[in-house]
Specification:
It is a single chain. By secondary structure, this protein is α+β, with helices and mostly antiparallel strands. It folds into 2 domains: about 180 residues, no CATH class; about 100 residues, Alpha-Beta Plaits, CATH 3.30.70. Helices cover about 75% and strands about 10% of the residues.
């Protein structure tokens, strides 16, 4: 029972000491606003680029998923194919496991739709014969690029089919772009994480140099290296957390501005293409990453530079 009572004040004192050091380290940063702001700006810039790439990758993945749900394979039939033959081809293709929907568009229906869309009804009527072929639109069971490609190749082998237009190439391009952006975001994230570590480490080095005399006195009276490093760890934590917060604010502004620029153009680029922020979990991960990077970098740098100070 006595041991428990003795441990409680010790833990409370330790907690009070940590809270005091955290506040003092933040106060020292605010006492040098320009130096602090410049460091935070560099940290935020280092965190912002990989965050932007990952947001773009996530948004592109969502757009690709939306595009996949509307992916189609269009078969243009030979000119001499009758409606009965075309319907037989449609029934044959609908029996496949990789096809969930079939729509037959006759040549006359295609002409009517084209005339209504272009307003060239009079011009097309003067041609004498219908220049548009009949077509069959297939809806794949899963808009995977390999499945769509296989379905398109099979359809092209049918004697009744003149040509095939598939969304396979668009899906492959979008998948390749999303994959590349994801790889770049992760790679740059690691590279810039090292950059943030060096930035925080340099800030810690400058703090240690400015407090060299004070550190020597603390060592003389028996202060441990971990006790001396404690405020420096909180300095690194505040730098990393504040830099990540600044990066999150700028990222939100960029996403909003990009969506305003994409408004009305996303249909031409890719259906469903809109940028979405990383969400609560994403912003929390960014802040946590900044705080952890700052803490770890300060821990490594402070121990190195403090140990280098001899009495």
């Amino acid at each position: 029972m006595e041991k428990k009572q003795n441990k409680t004040p010790k833990f409370a004192n330790l907690l009070r000491s940590h809270r005091k050091e955290a506040v003092l380290s933040l106060q020292r940063m605010t006492d040098q606003p320009w130096s602090t702001l410049s460091t935070l700006f560099v940290i935020a810039t280092a965190l912002l680029l990989p965050a932007c790439l990952l947001v773009l990758n996530s948004s592109l993945d969502s757009a690709v998923d939306s595009f996949r749900s509307t992916a189609r394979v269009t078969l243009y039939l030979e000119a001499n194919i009758s409606d009965t033959q075309a319907q037989a081809v449609s029934d044959h293709l609908l029996a496949r496991d990789d096809v969930v929907g079939v729509e037959y568009i006759s040549a006359d229906q295609a002409l009517r739709e084209f005339s209504a869309a272009t307003g060239l009804r009079t011009v097309l009527a003067g041609l004498g014969e219908n220049p548009l072929p009949a077509s069959i639109v297939l809806q794949p069971s899963a808009a995977d690029s390999s499945l769509v490609g296989e379905l398109a190749r099979y359809a092209a082998s049918l004697s009744e089919v003149d040509s095939v237009q598939a969304d396979e190439s668009w899906i492959q391009r979008a998948e390749a772009i999303a994959s590349t952006l994801g790889f770049l975001g992760q790679s740059l994230g690691l590279i810039f994480a090292l950059g943030v570590s060096f930035i925080v480490g340099n800030a810690v080095r400058m703090t240690v140099e400015s407090r060299r005399a004070e550190i020597k006195v603390i060592k003389l009276v028996g202060g441990s290296d971990s006790f001396i490093a404690r405020p420096l760890l909180y300095t690194g934590l505040w730098y990393g957390l504040s830099g990540a917060l600044l990066a999150a604010i700028v990222l939100s502004i960029l996403v909003y501005a990009a969506n305003a620029a994409l408004q009305g153009q996303s249909v031409d680029l890719l259906p469903g293409l809109t940028l979405s922020g990383p969400g609560v979990n994403g912003y929390f991960s960014l802040l946590l990453a900044g705080a952890v990077l700052g803490w770890v970098a300060a821990r490594v740098a402070s121990w190195h530079y403090i140990r280098a100070i001899s009495l």
